[in-house]
Amino acid sequence: MIVLRSVAELRAAVAAARGGQGRIGLVPTMGAFHDGHLSLMRRARELCDCVIVSLFVNPAQFTDPGDLARYPRDEALDATLAESAGADVLFAPEVRDVYPPGFSTHVEVLGVSAPLEGVVRGTGHFRGVATVVTKLFNMAQPDDAFFGQKDAQQALLVRRMVRDLDLPVRIEVCPTIREPDGLAMSSRNVLLLPDDRRRAPALARALTAVVDAVAAGERDATRALGAGAAVLRAAGIELEYFAAVSTDALEPVNVIAGETLIALAARFGRIRLIDNALVDPAVPRA
Ligand code: AMP
After folding, report:
1. Could you tell me which CATH class the domain 2-174 is placed in?
2. Cβ of residue 260 lying under 6 Å from some atom of ligand 1
3. Where would I find the H helices in 122-239?
């Protein structure tokens, strides 16, 4: 694996791979790799001839400066992990190269950016995501790009943006990878205090309670969410949102009739965690 920092070097590597008609795969990340990231890289390795992993802690998507300052960083370890997962290129650009002086262009995806994370983090968050993902697509020119279902709203936003702007990239959304106790892997998990780390698996248990309620025939969204809320209350979780929303527009649903996203965000001191599950009464549980 090679580590590249400039777009010019990256383009040369892409052109070399394309010369051989290779399929380019891109895994956009902010680093501090865990098995969730590595699963995306392994999937890219299965499908693509050249696997590019971008590592860029994107200041534009942090609406809380403290969150940006605390964000865990270890590029040397990340490089080792990315190589072990099959990456060919680790693209780790500098902030000044991604956002040169006078940078003044943004990509905004209306609608799906507004609810859930958009309410809590503000509209700037997904504007930052959409802008940097567009830039990374233009820099690496991938055939395929891989995202995690863990960030369901982000994945939906990227799909919408690619469709709306005719971006020539296929988006693949990969399953959420969890710790043995159910907690969704996240770079922020290492920042949790020990007691918060012990309580955090209640998030996944709450989602499972909703999935179980729907599997048992519950169709009323408020009652289905109630099953999960009881789990969260018992664990003393400070919720930001816990919602049943449509998977296409992220609009609240009252009746769980088709595929529905159950999404939550919680706060453990200064650390926010998000998680989600899909339910669909028409599809029996695996
Ligand atoms: P991040 O570095 O947090 O921006 O995440 C980079 C990519 O990894 C995003 O597409 C995330 O959705 C994905 N990701 C993060 N955590 C997980 C996880 N636990 N399982 C699967 N994918 C994940």
Report:
1. alpha beta
2. no
3. 123-140, 152-164, 194-199, 202-215, 221-234
